[in-house]
Amino acid sequence: MHELKLFSLNGNRPLAEKIAAEVGLPLSPARVNHFADGEVQIELPESVRGADVYVIQSVSDPVNENFMELMIMVDALRRASAHHINVVISYYGYARADRKARSREPITAKLVANMLEMDGVDRIVAVELHADQIQGFFDIPVDHLKAHRLIGDYFRKLNLGDNVVVIAPDHSGTKQARALAEELHTPIAIVDKRDQEHIGVIGNVEGMHAIVIDDLIDTGDRIVDSYKALSAAGALDVYAAATHGVFSRGAVDRIKHLGLKKVVITDTIQLDPKHQFEGLDQISVGPMLGKAIKLINSNQSIHVLF
C-alpha cells in the first residue's frame, strides 16, 4: 500500500484539521505564498514520490484565488511524482453554472472539471454538488457525499416531536427535501413562488415545526421568501438548514432579523467571524470526509456514508 499524505490549502484549514484528526494523520507541510501581484507560489518541503495524496480545498470566496491554489498544488504534486492525486472539494465553486440558461452562456462547472482533469487529478471527493449531474462532467471517479444525515442527526437531537415538516424552498429542491424527510420520517411541503407578489405553500404546515432545507445559503433570498410564506401559512416556527453557508451580499443581515428558530449549516466553507450570529449553528463534515478517505485508501466501498 502506498503512503497516505494529507495536504491543506488556504480555503478551509480548520476543516482539513478535523479531517486529519479523523484519518489519524497530521497534515503534511506545504508552503502556500501569495505575492503582492496576486500570483501563487507553492513549495513542498517533503518528498511525495509514490504517495497517495489528498488535497483538501474549498473553492469558496475568494473563489478564483482558491481555485488557482488548487490547480498549482496539483501541478506541483504531479511533477513531484505522487502516485495518486485525490482532491477533496468541500465546496465546488461555479457549481451553479451547470447548464446554459441563456444563449451564449458558458457552462463553467464543466470547464472547472476539464481543468482539474487536465491538471492530473485522479479522483474527486465532493460535498453536496449543486446538481448531481456535475459528476458526469468528469471522466475520473467522483465520490459525491451529502450532508442530509448530519443535518437529520442535528434535528433529531432537538426532539421536536411528530409535528415536523421538511420544506423545499422551490420545486427544484424537492429531492433534497425528500432525503431529509426520509431521515426524519416526516412529510414535505414546497414553497411555490410564481413571482414576488405570489408566494404560497403546497402542503400542510399549519401548527408544525417547519425545516427549510437547501444546498446553500447565498444571498438568503429563498430563506426570506420561505419564512414569509410559511409564517403566513400558520407554521408554528421555522428552521433553516443548508450544507454550504456562502453568506454573500448582506445575507446575514437579511436572515438574522427574520425570527428563525435556528439556522444550521456545515463547515464546508470556513465561516467568517462577521457572519456569526445568535441562532446560527454549524456542524462538521470533517468526520464524514475523514471516514471517506480511510475507506477509499483501503479500497472499500463508501456506500455506508450515503
Automatic annotation (TrEMBL):
Keywords: ATP-binding, Kinase, Magnesium, Metal-binding, Nucleotide biosynthesis, Nucleotide-binding, Transferase. It catalyses: D-ribose 5-phosphate + ATP = 5-phospho-alpha-D-ribose 1-diphosphate + AMP + H(+). GO terms for cellular component: cytoplasm; ribose phosphate diphosphokinase complex. It is an enzyme of class 2 (transferase). Residues 4-120 form the Ribose-phosphate pyrophosphokinase N-terminal domain. GO terms for biological process: 5-phosphoribose 1-diphosphate biosynthetic process; purine nucleotide biosynthetic process. PANTHER family: RIBOSE-PHOSPHATE DIPHOSPHOKINASE FAMILY MEMBER, RIBOSE-PHOSPHATE PYROPHOSPHOKINASE 1, CHLOROPLASTIC. This is Ribose-phosphate pyrophosphokinase. It comes from Lacticaseibacillus rhamnosus (strain LMS2-1). The gene is prs.
